[in-house]
Amino acid sequence: MARQDSTEQVLQGTLDLLILKTLSLAPMHGWGLAHRIQDLSRDVFQLGQGSIYPALVRLEQRGWVDTDWGTTDNNRRAKYYRITSAGRKAMGDELASWRRFVGAMDLVLGARA
Amino acid sequence: MMLDAITRMRAWMARAGELFRRRRLGAELDDEIRHHLELEIEYNVARGMPADEARRVALVSFGGVQRVREEARTARGFFALDALVRDVHYAWRSLRCSPGFTSTAVATIALGIATVTSVFGFVNAIFLRPLVPAAGDRVVRVYFETRANGEAMFGHAAARDMARHARSLELVGEHYSTAPLYVAANGWRSEVQGAVVSADYFRVLGVSASIGRFFAPDEDSVPDRDAVAIIGDGLWRSRFGADPGILRQTIAINGRRFSIIGVAPPGFFGAEPDRSAVQMWIPTAMFHVGYRWCDALAIQPPCTNSRVVARLAPGVTLASARAELRSMQPELVSLSDPSDSLENVAVERAIGFSPGSREQYLGLTRLLWSIAGILLVIACTNLAGLLIVRGLARRREIALRLAIGAARLQVTRQLVIESALLGLLGGLAGLALSALGAATLASFFTLDNEGYRHALDVHVDATVLEFAIASAVVAAVLFGTFPALASARADLVDSLREGARGTEGKSRTRQVLVAAQITLAVILLFGAALLSRSVGSILSTRHFDAEHVALMRLRPRLVGYEPAKAERYLADVVRRLEHVPGVESVGLARGIGLAWHPQITRPIALPGGIASTGASSSDAPKAIFTTITPRFFSTLGIRLTSGRDFTEHDLPGTPKVVIVNEALARTYWPGVSPLGKTVIIRDTSFTIVGVAPNYKIRVGMEPDAPMAFAAFWQNVFEPEVDARAAIRVRGEPAAMLNALARAAQEVDAAVPVTEMLPMTQQVTATFSEIRLARAVLIGTGALALALSTIGLYGVVAFVVRRRRREIGVRMAIGARGGEIVRLFLRQNLGWAVLGIAIGGAGAIAAARLISAWLVGVSPSDPISFAIAAGAVLIACVLGTLLPSWQAGRVDPVLALRSE
User: Of B490, B515, B510, which is closest to residue B502 (Cα–Cα)?
Assistant: First the structure.
């Protein structure tokens, strides 16, 4: 993965959450998903676009996302991913634990001597 | 049903394999990546990059196509597989950690599986295995269904007609596979089990000659022209010294010269190895050589002993072949023997034995299945017991795993995998053992009571392999997982806190299991005892002495002797045999007097009584009838109860005389001597000159069946040409057979002398079914006993371990070792007695299965029951004494400190 100075690598284990959250907004295909994550993070996250595919396979295996074949705007066949209800529930859990994690990090890092 | 299950299992395995075929999904991912890159390039171009720059940037931001592919495959494929590998690995480790448990469990499964698989191997050979495995289901048997024995043969002309005209049959192999071929070649003479076959027979069976060739169609077209023969590999090795130049030799078959043109491959015994393991083949154009009732053209009605194996034409179904042959039925019937009450022409896949033979094995097969099933249940119960104990021991471990968050499903899966692994190991071990077991079962049938060989091929094929592994794994998972789960399904906190105490309920379950085992063991042992007593009573009450008697069959008819010539020949042979050193006496019987086959019966009446001939002759009283020479009885060690034996003076022209057995005498002259009375047998009057004891001639025959013996040389009814000889010798009859055959051949070397064997061997072979059932019951009974003892030992050892503390306390307050032993003994004997009581009732019900083989013993024989119960009780005492004796030696201080 190319490391660039002004961007952040996606934290280990958070990619799933990012994908679930992004898919919860709208079903989309892989390329759209990669760009959407970058856009939403205002290009802070520079993920290797390919890395979303193994993650999508994993999420599909757990039944958190589902796929359909559809046609893109310019009439090409593409695989569309959409979040399942199990996926939404999982996203809720992950989100909560992420918030706790961030909160705890803030508390520790904000502590004064 | 069994076949269904196997088919389903195969389909399931194929589907499981497909799950791992990931190519389609891989291609989808490639499409997706390509699509992604195209979009990204377009996007970059739209932002103003030149084309190859746009492409480079797109690839960089994607970040390594190959790696993505691999990661995706890992995520997909190994998600399930990985976990499985991990679980198997874990299971393997945990089994290796307790070698005692593992080896006992594997041995238990192996014994159970070896028993059922041996029986399955036997059943497979009789009922399931395709005659030509390589040909799939294209090979069929064609035969006439009959009301009487299920299967009738075609006339040679009918089989030819079928070969020529049936379009649904691509190849028709005609064969008569029980042809007595009397062969003389370079210095030896002997009967060879032969077959008369058509040229296409070998092609249907898919074999090719290992030396030379098989019959050309031309050699099987003109009657009595081409005297050519094929010999079997075994015969080639034993009689021709594996001579590679065999094809130049000529041999005499039933007095006719033949040239050898080919050698069949090793292990090939023809189309009906169960009826006869054939080692010599001649073409149907020479039918009259192989079967005396056929003329050279082989078209007369008596020449009806052709069976048919055929290959269906491509695309033809069984149903359409059947329909076509039914349409040919009138011709086929007219070219066969219509007096056989032929029904429909049947076409069926050539699997297992031919329909007539299969029928004979049904009863035995049912019995063997039941026995094997019982043993498997005992083994499974033992396994369940073992796993309960193991489950208890692992309660803590399982509770711990659940507590730290393992899903219940995961734990269950782990237990299932562990059981399956045990099953697999046990199944493989059982399979290895079963090869031995199946061969032992088959060995009871390789030699029949006429001395002919049968080939019963019980080698382990794919079907047997699948059966063994599948039944082992299913049994292990069923009986292994539930007990383990049940004992693990305890309250978590409870199990963790109190460790492995509080297990009274579980040892009660185990005791019930052991009682169930004892019940089943009693059933098997009772059967074993019944059959042993039956065999004993058959041997002791047959009233004749088979030791030191040699048998042979003299067959002048095979070489076309007229009755007068045959009679001179037979008389000469008797005289010659009597002078062989070591021979004590010689007796002849006509027909089938000694082969213990169904006997000829004749209507019997008294003077002045109702004539026994006429229409309703089936209701008329009948007696088993045969003709014998003087000294026949003394040769068999039978002493007449009264009157005299036949003499050389009982000849044609002298008054017709008869010897009757006691049963006949008692029926017609109760309490009076029948000597001198007249009896009418088939319209001919005889004077009774002697009374013989009842002696058993075959199993299942009512002990008191009336019998009448006429004088051989008086020729009272139609003249017979062949005869069987019984020869009493000093010493071993087996060692005398060659000298006896030589003596007969000195009289006339052309006459076949066949079926030479010691009489004891005939007796043994006649009772092969009973002996087999007895051997199996004794074997499985002993195994059941051993398994129950191990089970009992396990329970007691387990309880002793759990109650160590209590025992320690008892000892500390003054109990003696003996009292501890008595405590356990009292408990276990209670269960044993319960098991024996239930088992006894079950055994008497189950004895119906073998009632046909019980001679001189009642199906509820108390002595057999006592033997079975005694054996079980002894096993119980042994299984209890050892561990509880160890308990009695517990050092109280150590025991109390151990917790």
Answer: B490
Q: What percentage of chain B reaches a pLDDT higher than 70?
A: 85
What is the maximal distance between C-alpha atoms in chain B?
A: 133
Q: What angle do CA B574, B575, B578 make, to 5 degrees?
A: 85
**Partner-chain contact B32 A61, CB within 8 Å:** no
- CA-to-CA distance for B296 and B289, rounded, in angstroms? 8
Angle subtended by helix axes B817-846 and B504-541, to nearest 10: 50
Token reading at B616: 């309703």
- If one compares B295 and B670, the residue with the highest pLDDT of the two is B670
Hey, what are B194's tokens? 């032969």
**Each residue's pLDDT tens digit, B509-519:** 777 888 888 89
Place of tokens 């031995």: B436
Condensed to tens digits (0 to 9), the pLDDT of residues B167-189 reads: 999 999 999 998 888 898 887 88
Instruction: Give the one of A2, A34, A54 whose C-beta lies nearest to B75's C-beta.
Output: A54
> Which stretches does DSSP call E strand in B208-341?
211-212, 228-231, 250-253, 256-263, 280-283, 307-312
Res B813 pLDDT > 90: no
Listed by number, the residues of chain A in 62-81 with a beta carbon closer than 8 Å to a beta carbon of chain B are: 72, 76-79
The residue assigned the tokens 């076959």 is B197
In angstroms, the CA B333 to CA B314 distance is 27
pLDDT at A5: 43
- B65 interaction partners in chain A (CB closer than 8 Å): 50
Q: Which amino acid is at B139?
A: V
Q: Report pLDDT for B142.
A: 94
Instruction: Give residue-wise pLDDT tens across range B403-448.
Output: 666 666 677 778 888 888 999 999 999 999 998 898 898 888 888 8
Report ipTM (2 d.p.).
0.86
Which stretch of B242-246, B580-584, B595-599 has the lowest confidence by average pLDDT?
Answer: B595-599
Pairwise CB contact (< 8 Å): B68 & A58: no
Residue type, position B649, single letter: H
Which chain B positions have a beta carbon within 8 Å of A72's beta carbon?
39
Question: Hey, are the CB atoms on A49 and B60 less than 8 Å from each other?
Answer: no
Closest-CA residue of A relative to B74 is: A54
Interface residue B47 vs chain A (CB under 8 A): no
3-state DSSP assignment of residue B853 = helix
b (16+ CB within 10 A) / e for B103-118:
ebbbbbbbbbbbbbbb
**Contact between B466 and B9 (Cβ < 8 Å):** yes
Whether B614 shows a pLDDT value over 50: the answer reads: no
| B361 close to B771: Cβ distance less than 8 angstroms | no
Please judge whether B35 and A29 are an interchain contact, meaning their C-beta atoms are less than 8 angstroms apart. yes
Please report the pLDDT score of residue B863 as a whole number.
Answer: 92
3-state secondary structure of B579: coil
Written in H, E and C, the secondary structure of B174-231 is EEEEEEEEEEEECCEEEEEEEEEECCCHHHHHCCCCCEECCCCHHHHCCCCCCCEEEE
Query: What is the per-residue pLDDT for B719?
Result: 72
Chain A CB contacts of B26 under 8 Å are none
Q: What pLDDT is stored for residue B210 in this prediction?
A: 94
The answer on pLDDT for B494 being more than 60 is: no
Residue showing tokens 């010691």:
B758
Contacts of A49 in chain B (CB under 8 A): 36, 40, 61-63
Q: Given this model, what pLDDT does residue A2 score?
A: 41
**A71: alpha, beta or left, given left = phi > 0 and alpha = psi -120 to 50?**
beta
Are B711 and B646 spatial neighbours (Cβ–Cβ below 8 Å)? Answer: yes
Say if CB B700 and CB B711 are below 8 A apart.
no
Distance CA B398, CA B405 (A): 11
- Which of A55-59, B623-627, B761-765 comes out lowest in average pLDDT? B761-765
> What would the two tokens of residue B458 be?
């019980």
